[in-house]
Amino acid sequence: MSKEPNHRLAAIMAEAGASNKGLAKRVREVAQRHGDHLGTTHVAVQRWLNGKGIQRQTAMYVAEALSNKLRRRVTPQELGFSGVPQALDSSVGMDYARSLPEVLDALGGLTHQCADGGRSDETQLPDADVHSAVLTWLVSRPEGMPSGTPATRRVGMRDVAAIRTAAGFFMQLDFRFGGGHAHKAFRHYFREDVLPLLGACYSAKVGEALFKAASEMTQLLAWSAYDIGNHALAERYLLSTLRLAQVAGDRMMGARILTNLSHQANYLGMAPRALTLARASVEGGKAGSTPRAMALFSAHEARALSTARDHKGAVRAMNEAERFFERAGNATDPEWLAYMDEAELNGEFCHCFRDLGQGTEAVRFAARAVELTDPKYARSLGFCRMVLAQSQLLDGELEAALTTAGLAIEAGDALQSARFQRYVSDFRREVSARAAHPVIQRFDERVRKAKKDGVGGMDDE
Fold first, then answer.
1. Mean pLDDT over residues 238-267, rounded?
2. pTM summary value
């Protein structure tokens, strides 16, 4: 059966005034700029117009060629290449948006990005851009809800309640199964059910609640992309979420986003950036955050200081986090902060002592975190078990470390998390120097079996 003609491609080529030969030449030039060599001719273009298939990367080059010609962004989907995931556009979400329409447009673009198509351990935003966004947020004032929106739909509190319910559901999926499990569903729900509401009609009271709920959803999108390993996409979601939080004047959510950015930078080994972001979250969150939130922000300052091997600073920040946490029961926290309990605090501290090289303290806090963590937080439990294993290794307890790591790997069978996979890989590298030891050989066999059985954290890197 023959394919239907690609009328979308034909229409955009006509708009651009591009002939078959002209487009083929532009596609070759774009590919060459990307270090690729294509032999695209007018014959290939005609095949695409006839509805024949196209390679994913070639479709990206076609979209870029026509975007350059038209001086506006064109996606493969707009060209009728519906089966091709979009690449992360180099400009979408790179800046701290100046206006609400700008941030909504950026979010619309980001939700078309396939998170598992761009795994990378490198961030793509320069320090200057991140610092500029942080400073803008720190000195910002609530801008109030937009008024006089010419929309036919009116948003009510029931719509907001639905978003919060969905956010809670997606958060539990993320905690239990990892970011790779449901990111696609997250972004589809946000794009189709949440984003349109932000441009609809609502009262000031509903609008404030709506933007707070939307911020919770976009930070989940960021977090799941981060957990998958797509750091560029996660970072852009976080910047957009920071801007959404400004609209409603939600300083606590804004500070949380800076903490998430710090967490990501720390994971990528960028200690100076992590520390700057963590301190900005502490300072920026003071005016409007609960003690539980401040405990979270201070704990991440401690994490960054520990990575930088600043022992005195890390201990000070941990003490501050403890003092805030002691007062946590005296305030009403948002639902998204419910996970920040004693187990989570101990989990943050065990990471700190591990990075400071203090094995005994790291073992104490990691063991306590494992003991206290609710099994519904499966990913957190997996992390804490792996840190306990690393800490036991640091403390000279080889067999105990291998037993703990083996338990973490087997219990993490449902996790689709690049971060958990890295914890396991890091541990395996740490013990590889002792590969001749019989218990190491038995552990490696256990890992191979887990990998064969499809344990989530043991996919090939």
1. 94
2. 0.77
